[in-house]
Amino acid sequence: MKTTIVWFKTDLRIADNETLTKAITQSEQIVPVYCLDDAHFETTVYGFKKTGSFRAQFLLESLTDLDKNLRALGSRLVVVKGKPEVEIPKLVQQFRAQKVFAKREVAFEEHKTEDLVREALFKLRCELETVSTSTLYHAKDLPFSIKNIPDDFTNFRKKTEQDATIRKPFDSPNKINSPTLPELKLPSLKELGLKKTKIDSRAAIVFKGGETEALKRLKHYFFDTQCLSSYKETRNKMVGTDYSSKFSAWLAMGCISPRFIYAEIKKYESQFGANESTYWLVFELLWRDFFRFMFKKYQTKFFLNEGIKSEKINSKSLNEKLLSQWINGTTNSDFINANMIELKQTGFMSNRGRQNVASYFCNELNMDWRWGAAYFEEQLIDYDVCSNWGNWAYLAGVGNDPRGHRYFNIEKQASDYDKKMEFRKLWLQ
């Protein structure tokens, strides 16, 4: 084929990008494209923006970095704004492309958009080929079909670890042939309907978007500091840059792939030795896989009040006052408040914090969990549709928790994980 389009989505990287690699091998010329989907900047039925300013800023940085990396290979990134089903076909006609390559989607809205693009391209006699690029284990390599994947993570993990292998990451291309492409032009946050929000100086880490920054963070956490060797012991801490890997934002935007991280863990283990901590990071990547495969299995169910449970649960109403107190960190719990203020001021919260504020929302405030999930969707830099809604459903007792309902004793959690009140003092001063 002469010309193909690579439609980048949440796979904003050059390394281990099968979509890009496939397109290069099948084409004479490549047109790399990103579409700022209007739907991603709308307000949801819950009253929150789908994308808040922290994540939008991270996205714009990631696109700038991708363009820089593409230019180094002889290409550029073409950025358009609008509906993908309108904008992608326009580019197909402009560049006379015979095929569009893109990352495969599993969540409902993303999948629907993919189908609309496919239909529009079909009318132009242009094919859309999608490639699975988001998980550690490829769906085809799992020891069960998607519909038969165990709903319990432990069973999924044990069987997968025993019977499946992780594929090697794809090498970065050395060169990309492209037609003459325009210089990158990105909209401002204001043009996206957002206000620029300065990240609080107390932030555990200042996330900067892009593959370059993702690789820099990996090098720092693995090889410069060897923090990976103590990851399991420190991952539940709440203050500081290196208590956890902090890869989540780059993983969510696809600036780095789980398979690439896995390959680097193996290099690290051969250099510094394997232990429980080096395994535990793989374990966490497996959780990410699990929720993605669950979304493929259950489609829209993760967005329902009753989640993936068959029995209808009592609908909980929304209390605007309690929701506002939770968002603004003015509840009766100083531990919850500190976590919620951190989220509001930085777009990030520790894993331990997330579990506690979600449990508090569902159990103490007794509100419909989907409002909490929707607020996280707006606020989090590292928002990932499957991990966010999957984890919220889990904590609300309507997801994959085999125990049915998980309740956190907030005071005990605060005393266990913030014994010296270091975290609370930092955010409640």
Brief sketch in words of this structure:
The chain is of the alpha/beta class and 429 residues long. The protein has 17 helices and five strands.
If you had to describe this structure to a student in words, what would you say it looks like?
The protein is an alpha/beta fold and 429 residues long. The chain has three domains: 3-133, HUPs (Rossmann fold, 3-Layer(aba) Sandwich); 211-299, Serine Threonine Protein Phosphatase 5, Tetratricopeptide repeat; 304-428, Orthogonal Bundle (DNA Cyclobutane Dipyrimidine Photolyase, subunit A, domain 3). It has helices at residues 18-26, 53-71, 84-95, 108-123, 153-163, 211-224, 231-234, 248-253, 258-272, 276-298, 320-328, 334-346, 351-364, 369-379, 385-396, 410-417, 422-428, and strands at residues 3-8, 29-37, 78-82, 99-103, 127-131. The chain has a five-stranded parallel sheet with strand order 3-2-1-4-5, sandwiched between helices. Strand 4 (99-103), helix 4 (108-123) and strand 5 (127-131) form a beta-alpha-beta unit. It is globular and about 65 Å long. FAD binds at residues 231, 244-248, 284-291, 382-384. Belongs to the DNA photolyase class-1 family. May have a photoreceptor function. GO terms for molecular function: deoxyribodipyrimidine photo-lyase activity; DNA binding; FAD binding.
Key structural traits:
429 residues, alpha/beta, Rossmann fold, Serine Threonine Protein Phosphatase 5, Tetratricopeptide repeat, DNA Cyclobutane Dipyrimidine Photolyase, subunit A, domain 3, 3 domains, 5-stranded parallel sheet, 7% strand
